[in-house]
Amino acid sequence: MKNLTFAAGLLTASAALADTPVLTVYAPDYFASEWGPGPSIEAAFEASCDCDLQFKTGDVLGRIILEGTRTDADAVIGLNTDITKKARETGLFAPHGQDVAKLTLPLDWTDEVFLPFNYSHTAFIYNTESLPNAPQSFDELLAADDSLSLVIQDPRSSISGLALVLWVKSVYGDRAESVWEQLAPKILTVTKGWSESYGLFTDGEADMVLSYTTSPAYHIVAEGDLTKKAAIFPEGHYFMVELAAKIAGTDNPELADAFLAFILTDTFQNLIPTGNWSLPAALPVPEWPEAFQELPLPEKVLFYSEDEAADLRAETIEEWRRALSK
Amino acid sequence: MAPRAVQIIAGAALAAFVIAPLAAVWAKAGPAVRFGPAEWAALRFTLLQAALSAALSVLLAIPLARALARSRFWGRDVTIMLLGAPFILPVIVAVLGLIAIFGQNGLLNDGLRALGFEPLSIYGLQGVLLAHVFFNLPLATRMILLGWMSLPSERIRLGQSLGLGAMARFYLIEWPMIRRILPSAFAVIFVICLSSFAVALTLGGGPKATTIELAIYQAFRFEFDFATAALLGLVQLFLSVSAAGVALWLAGHDRLGIGLDRPAPAALRPLSERCIDAGVILGAMLFLILPLALLFIKGAAGVPDLGAPVWFAALRSLALALGATLLCLCFALPLATRWGELIATLGIAVSPLVLGTGLFLIVRPYVNPFDVALGVTLCVNALMSLPFALRILRPEVQAVEQNFSHLSAALGLGAWGWFRWVMLPRLRRPLGFAAGLTAALSMGDLGVIALFGDAERATLPLKLYQLMGSYRMDQAAAAAVLLLALSLGLFWLFDRVGRYGAQD
Questions:
Q1: DSSP one-letter code for A282
Q2: How far is B495 from chain A (nearest CA, A)?
Q3: Residue A217 is part of a domain; what is its CATH number?
Q4: Given CB atoms, is A66 within the 8 Å cutoff of chain B?
Q5: A154 to chain B nearest CA, in Å?
Q6: ipTM score of complex
Q7: Model confidence over B84-125: pLDDT tens digits?
C-alpha cells in the first residue's frame, strides 16, 4: 500500500511538471552527479524560476556538434577554454548578455559568448608528510632528483593534461621540448584522465600529481586532512576556467537568460567552492569559505587566448609526445 | 542446429548493428583524414602489445587449465570461479589493484627492497603485458579448461590402460583438443587488446604506449574529427576480422570421437606431477587473486555507508546484466557456427566510442537518446559479450552435432526433441558459463551509458567513475567492492545452475 501511495504521488508530481517549462542544460557528468554542484544548483534555480531545470550529462560540445541546430539544449555549462574556439565556430551559441563587471577573475574577461562560472589553476599537489622538501618553483622541479615521481594526464585525452603542456609552453617558450626531456625521467606515468592520476597519488604511488590549486580544499574541508598541498611556483600557473553559454536556437530564451543571470548571483557562486571544489568566478575573496580564503594561490596567472592556444596546441602536444617517447 | 533462416537473420541483424553506426559516423565526417606518423606509431604499438598479450595469455593458460583439469582438491570450484574474476572487473579498478602489488610502493617492491634488491618498475611494455595477461589469462584458461572437460573419458582411460607416458598422452589426446581451441582463444584476446586504451597508457608509462583507441578518443572528444575517428574504427574492424578469420582457418577439427559423457576418472598420478600442478595453481592464484583481495580489504568497510543512489545504480546494473544475458544467449544459440563466430567478433571489433556515437546519430532523429539509454546499453552489452559466449558454446554445439546427429536421425527426433534431449543436457555447463560471463561483463562495463547517461539512469560503474571524479576515492573503492561482489555473485549463480546435475 505504501508503494502505491508513493507511485500515485510520483504520477501527480510528473503531471504537475508537464505544465511547467523545462530548461535543458547540457553538463559534464561530474558537474551534474550527486557529488557535484548540479543538484543544489538545480534546487536553488527552481526555487526562483517556476520551471524544471534538467541537466543532461555527457560530452557537452561533442553532442552539440552532432545535434547541430536540432539540439534540445537551451544552455550548456562546463565548457573549457580549450574548446571554445571550436564551439564558437559552430555558430550555435548566442551572446550571454550578462554584465561581466561582476566577475572577480584574476584576469580580464571580455568574451561575449562564454560566461565563466568558476576557475582554478593547474598545480602539482603533494603530501607534506611523504615529501617534506617539495620543489618551490618550476626550475626547482626540473632540477629535482629523478627519484621524484610525478603522475600527469595525457594532453590528447584530458583537459588538465592539455593545460599542463600549455603551462610549460607559456613558462619556457621555445625551450619547452627540452624541459619535457628533463621532466621525462620523473614522470612515472601518464593517465587518460584526472581521476586515474589522482587515484594513483592518493594510493601513494607517486610523490606529486598534476591537479588544481583548489584540490587541497577538498581534503581540508571534507576530510580534515591538512597534509595535501599545492606547490606554488613563482613562474606562474596556468589558468583554467569553466564556462556556460546560451544556445542560439533555444525555445526558451527567457529561461536561458535567467539561468545565465543566475550563474552570477551570490546564491550560485556560494554553491561553487564546496560543490565543484573550485573558485567562484563572481564572488569577492572575503565571501569565500575560510578554507578557500586560506588556500595558497599563485600571484602570477598564465593564460593563452583561445586563438593562441589553438595555434599552439598541435605543436605543444607533439613536443610533449616526442620528448616522452624517447 | 537452428534452421538456416534463423541463423542468417541473427547474423545479419548483428552485422547491421555494428556496421550501421560506423557508417553513420562516416557519413557525418568531413573530407579531411589525418593518418600521420603518430597514428602509424600507435598502430604499430597496438599490434605489438595485442599480439604479445594474446600469445602470453594462451601459453600460460595451457599449463594452468591442464593442472585444474587434472587436480581434485577441496575448494576447486571456488578456485576456478575466483580465477575468473579479473576478466569481469572494470579496468580502472583492476589497474589500481595491480599497482597495489606491482607498483612503486606495491607489495612486490616493498619485499624486494626489504631483501636489498633494486625495485622493479611496472611502467612500460612489461606493465601493459602484465595487465593484459591479468585480464585475459582467466578467459583463456576457462576456454581451454572447457576443452579439457570435453575430452571423452574413454580416451583418457584407454590412454591409461595403454600406459601412455606424459608426452604421448599430450600428443595423442590433449594436443588435438588444444589445436581446436587455441587459435580461437588467441584471436579473441588479440581483439580485446586491440581496443585497450586506459590500461595501456597508464601502465605503459607514457605516449610510447599510445594505442589506436586513444587516437579515436582524441579525434572524437577533443577535435570532433569524425573522419579520422571513423577511419581508425575501420582499421580496428579490419584487424579484428582478419585475426578472427585466420583463427577460424587455423582451427582444425579434432577426431577424438564420441564418448559416453562420463567424467574422467581421477587417476593415481605420480607425486612429481601433482606437485607441479599444485605449484601452477598456487602461482596463478597469487597472481590473479591477490590484487583483488587487496582491493577488497581497502573498500569492504565502506560498503554499508554507500548512499542510496549507489544502491539504486547497483539494482539498475543488475537488471541490465540479466537483460543483456538473455539477449546474448538468444543470439548465441543460432549463431554457434564457424561463420557465426566470425560475425560475432564484430561485437568487440569496433571501438565502443564509435559504436555509441553512431547509435546516437541513428536513433537521434526518432527518439530522445536519453530515453533509450538503458536499452541501447543493454544491446551493446549483449553484443560485446557475444564473441565470448560463442567461443564457449560453439565447440560444444559442434561436437554434439558431429557425434549425435546420426543417432538422432536414426531415432527420428524432431528439432525440439533434438534440442531438448540431446543438445541442452550437453550444453548445460557451457551455457551456464556463458551466461555467467555475459552477466558479469555487462555488470562491470561502463560502456555506452557514459555517452548517454544522466543521473536517473546511471549504472554502478558510472557511479564509481563519478565518485573518483569528485575526489571520493574511498567511496569509489567501496563501490568497486560492491561491483566486484555483484559481478562474481552473478557469475557464480549462472555457473552453478549450469553445473547443477551435470556429471561432475
A1: T
A2: 33
A3: 3.40.190.10
A4: yes
A5: 8
A6: 0.84
A7: 788 877 777 788 889 989 988 888 988 998 898 888 889 999
